Amino acid sequence: MLALLLHDPQRYVAKTLDESIQKLAKLNEMYPSDNRWGMNIYEASKDLEPKYQEDFIRYLGNPAMFDPDNEQAQLSAALEAQVAEDIPEHGRNTIDPDYTQRYELVPSKNGRDFDVVVTNAGEIEYDDEKNPQ
Prior knowledge:
- It contains 5 helices and 2 strands; from the N terminus they run H-H-H-H-H-E-E.
- The protein has a domain at 2-85.
- It is of the alpha+beta class.
- It has a two-stranded antiparallel ribbon.
- A hairpin with a 6-residue loop joins strand 1 and strand 2.
């Protein structure tokens, strides 16, 4: 199996967290371009068992400091689970159907990026003449 990881990592099936991390490292080594990072992450994690998926995401967030056995990481995971209990099933951001929203693109200081600013514009005005039902 190790030979397959070293020579053809795309065919290597990584089911555990360690295997996925090793596969990602090998894929990043073989395909280092910026436009491949998403595909590398997908390829490394597509066969990952569900119980390792959250830890893989935490690894992606901070690979240098990642340690699944770290007490701080376990406390963070417990806090995330506690916060998640308070979030309703449908999510936390709901859109009131009686309000319209305005979307504005705001250019950043570097001139290449934009932020999308969403604001409530007020209640929808129904005009029978303009909007026949």
